[in-house]
C-alpha cells in the first residue's frame, strides 16, 4: 500500500481540505463551483496532473424539483452534477466512494481525444481502481478484469466501458436504494424544501 501511495500518479494535492458535507451548505462546501480562485487552481492542476478529479464537481444549487427527481430514477441522479456530489457524499459514509470516483474517471477518459493523454489516464485508472494493490480497488468480476487486461495492451477511451457499466449497475442496485432512505438525502430534501417555502 505504501508503495502505491508514494506513486506520483496517486499523490493528493497538499493542504487541500475536502469539504465534509458537500452540497448541504451551498455557501461553503460547494464553493468550489463559485470560488473563482479555487476554480482557476483546479483547472491549472488539471493541465499539469492528469489524475486530478475534483473533490466536489462544479455545480449550481439544485432546485427542490431536481432534488425530488433524484428519487424517480438513478439515471436522473447520475446526470445531475449536484446529485452526483450528494450521492458521492453518501458513498463516502459507506466506504465505497471509489465507485463514484472510478465512474467519473471513466467519463473523463471517454471525453479524451489525445492518444498520449488516453494512455496516461488509462494507466492511472488501472493503478487507482483496478490494481489489486490499490486501496481504492473497485469490485469487478474476473471476466471484466480479463477484458481490461487485454485492452490495456493498447488502451483506448473505451478500455473500461464494461467495468464502468458493472460499477454503475452495482451503485444502482446496491447503494441507490439505501441513499434514498438515508439521513443525507432526507435532510437535504427537508432543508431545500424549507428554504423554498420561505422564499
Radius of gyration: 17 Å
**Number of helical elements:** 10
Largest sheet: none
Mean pLDDT over all positions: 79
Uncertain residue ranges: 1-54
What proportion of the residues form beta strands (DSSP E)?
Answer: under 5%
Quantity of strands, as a count = 0
Topology pattern, helix = H, strand = E: HHHHHHHHHH
Structural class per helix/strand content? mainly alpha
Helix content: 55-70%
Q: How many angstroms separate the termini?
A: 50 Å
Shape: elongated
Keywords: Cytoplasm, Glycoprotein, Lipoprotein, Membrane, Nucleus, Palmitate, Signal transduction inhibitor, Ubl conjugation
InterPro entries: RGS (IPR016137), RGS_sf (IPR036305), RGS_subdom1/3 (IPR024066), RGS_subdomain_2 (IPR044926)
Subcellular location: Cytoplasm; Membrane; Nucleus
Subunit structure: Forms a complex with G(alpha)z/i2 subunits and mu-opioid receptors; the formation of this complex results in mu-opioid receptor desensitization. Interacts with OPRM1.
Task: Provide an overview of this structure.
This protein is mainly alpha-helical. It has helices at residues 2-5, 36-48, 64-69, 74-79, 81-93, 97-110, 115-130, 142-151, 161-180, 183-198. The chain is elongated. It starts with a helix and ends with a helix. It is a lipid-anchor. Its main location: cytoplasm. Residues 73-189 form the RGS domain.
Amino acid at each position: 500500500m505504501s508503495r502505491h501511495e508514494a506513486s506520483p500518479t496517486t499523490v493528493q494535492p497538499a493542504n487541500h481540505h475536502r469539504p465534509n458535507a458537500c452540497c448541504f451548505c451551498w455557501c461553503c462546501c460547494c464553493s468550489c463551483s463559485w470560488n473563482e480562485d479555487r476554480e482557476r487552481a483546479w483547472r491549472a492542476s488539471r493541465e499539469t496532473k492528469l489524475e486530478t478529479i475534483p473533490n466536489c464537481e462544479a455545480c449550481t444549487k439544485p432546485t427542490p424539483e431536481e432534488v425530488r427527481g433524484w428519487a424517480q430514477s438513478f439515471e436522473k441522479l447520475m446526470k445531475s452534477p449536484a446529485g452526483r456530489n450528494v450521492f458521492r457524499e453518501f458513498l463516502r459514509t459507506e466506504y465505497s466512494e471509489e465507485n463514484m470516483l472510478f465512474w467519473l474517471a471513466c467519463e473523463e477518459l471517454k471525453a479524451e481525444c489525445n492518444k498520449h493523454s488516453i494512455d496516461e489516464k488509462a494507466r492511472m485508472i488501472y493503478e487507482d481502481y483496478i490494481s489489486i494493490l490499490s486501496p481504492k480497488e473497485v469490485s469487478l468480476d474476473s471476466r471484466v478484469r480479463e477484458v481490461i487486461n487485454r485492452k490495456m495492451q493498447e488502451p483506448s477511451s473505451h478500455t473500461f466501458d464494461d467495468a464502468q457499466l458493472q460499477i454503475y449497475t452495482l451503485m444502482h442496485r446496491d447503494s441507490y436504494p439505501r441513499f434514498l432512505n438515508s439521513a443525507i438525502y432526507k435532510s437535504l430534501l427537508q432543508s431545500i424544501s424549507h428554504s423554498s417555502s420561505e422564499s
